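Lecture notes, part 5. Sequence design as translation. It can be helpful to think of inverse folding as translation between two languages: the language of shapes and the language of residues. The source text, in structure tokens, appears below.
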């Protein structure tokens, strides 16, 4: 994404003024030029154009009520930032923030279902707002579902996800109970306005399963069908610790939760159940540095690359959507000893014991260690930054490779401080690195490894005066 400042005298087609970004700033991931980005919301295909909404604030200031940012794309890769689509209404049902939800088409309109926060309210209420201009803006919200009653002992209730279900509609809402039972509540409607409870889609008392804390509550529920199996994709959450992992739970048979991403910086998944590009999954890429550093930089968060999902041994597996290959520029060349910029893709075709090292400087490097005998992959960030404000926690993936697949053993996409790594078994690791040394950087890797340069200019603000708010233009 190119940093631009829109001249207030600009008109349609005016050329933006390009400014220099810091080398940590992602360039091809959806984000604001500055400000705070978190959950992706309601990605939708409207007439062959992808619309991606996302939680945003014009400044890195969590006291500002969150709104719905908006970006559009013809190919899932080249994005244009638009004006915010939903802005909290002072004194209204979302005055404290327009929080997570999704969008659907209905009789030529776009309906957004989302959580509206009002300060001092115990819950985020389920709201609906309607767009009659193709998803660019939405009208005032109305509450379409009653908050839980006191006798239900519900301690968290938010984040509706609506989908067409036969002749009517279904809605999933995330919840937590006082006894630490997490659930995805299920509602049905014939018109999408009046809803009735039909129980839980899935519920589970808090537990640790294969090293995964299932959480005392589930937020941001998404219902995704993959290879004939429906999954609830949820964010595990607790009052004490806040967000945990994104986990996928099959809705048939005994609940078997598994991580959607093995990194520390992927949360709040959002899906298109159907689209011109098939089912697509996005996530929020969180920061891996102190809040103070992010505030000083003036930006925080990004949206992940679009992902394709499939079923692998009963779990949800993901990889970069095929559209992502459009980021590549030029041709592949041997990775070992190659000099790269801050936007690059490194591919190891087959699993071999060794290390892919991205060397930022003599004292800073990111290591991807592969142990074929132990069948593990380790993403080691301990030396990725000499700045103590960066998180050094490693990620270890067990059974990362599928030797029968035609996917690369390791595929690493680097975008400034963002690292998205994928394996042949459909495991992913999303993490962050903050080297103090700007590019050029160097790759040290097994001889089979190749590298591509990636496009740095795939997303821009719309070239119209006021296309994004003045507060969100770069400085």
């Amino acid at each position: 994404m190119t940093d631009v400042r829109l001249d207030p005298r600009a008109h349609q087609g005016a050329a933006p003024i390009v400014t220099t970004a810091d080398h940590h700033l992602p360039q091809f991931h959806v984000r604001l030029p500055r400000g705070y980005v978190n959950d992706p919301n309601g990605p939708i295909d409207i007439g062959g154009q992808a619309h991606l909404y996302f939680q945003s604030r014009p400044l890195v200031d969590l006291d500002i009520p969150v709104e719905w940012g908006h970006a559009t794309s013809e190919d899932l890769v080249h994005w244009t930032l638009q004006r915010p689509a939903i802005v909290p209404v002072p004194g209204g049902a979302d005055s404290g923030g327009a929080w997570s939800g999704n969008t659907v088409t209905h009789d030529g309109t776009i309906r957004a279902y989302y959580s509206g926060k009002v300060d001092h309210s115990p819950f985020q209420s389920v709201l609906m707002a309607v767009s009659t201009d193709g998803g660019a803006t939405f009208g005032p919200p109305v509450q379409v579902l009653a908050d839980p009653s006191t006798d239900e002992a519900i301690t968290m209730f938010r984040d509706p996800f609506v989908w067409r279900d036969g002749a009517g509609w279904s809605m999933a809402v995330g919840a937590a109970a006082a006894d630490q039972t997490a659930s995805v509540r299920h509602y049905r409607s014939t018109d999408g306005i009046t809803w009735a409870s039909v129980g839980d889609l899935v519920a589970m008392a808090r537990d640790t399963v294969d090293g995964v804390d299932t959480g005392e509550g589930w937020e941001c529920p998404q219902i995704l069908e993959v290879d004939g199996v429906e999954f609830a994709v949820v964010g595990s959450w607790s009052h004490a610790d806040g967000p945990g992992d994104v986990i996928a739970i099959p809705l048939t048979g005994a609940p078997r939760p598994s991580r959607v991403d093995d990194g520390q910086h992927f949360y709040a998944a959002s899906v298109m159940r159907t689209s011109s590009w098939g089912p697509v999954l996005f996530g929020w890429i969180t920061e891996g540095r102190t809040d103070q550093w992010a505030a000083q930089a003036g930006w925080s968060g990004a949206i992940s690359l679009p992902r394709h999902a499939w079923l692998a041994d009963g779990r949800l597996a993901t990889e970069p959507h095929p559209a992502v290959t459009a980021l590549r520029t030029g041709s592949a060349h041997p990775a070992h000893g190659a000099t790269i910029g801050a936007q690059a893709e490194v591919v190891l075709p087959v699993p071999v014991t060794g290390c892919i090292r991205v060397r930022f400087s003599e004292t800073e490097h990111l290591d991807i260690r592969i142990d074929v005998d132990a069948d593990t992959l380790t993403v080691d960030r301990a030396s990725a930054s000499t700045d103590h404000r960066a998180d050094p926690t490693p990620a270890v993936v067990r059974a990362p490779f599928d030797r029968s697949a035609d996917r690369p053993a390791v595929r690493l996409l680097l975008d400034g401080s963002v690292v998205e790594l994928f394996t042949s078994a459909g495991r992913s690791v999303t993490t962050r690195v903050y080297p103090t040394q700007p590019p050029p950087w160097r790759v040290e890797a097994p001889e089979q490894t190749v590298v591509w340069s990636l496009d740095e200019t795939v997303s821009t603000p719309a070239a119209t005066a006021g296309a994004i708010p003045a507060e969100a233009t770069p400085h």
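The translated text above is only one of many valid answers, since several sequences can fold into similar shapes. The longest strand covers residues 35-46.
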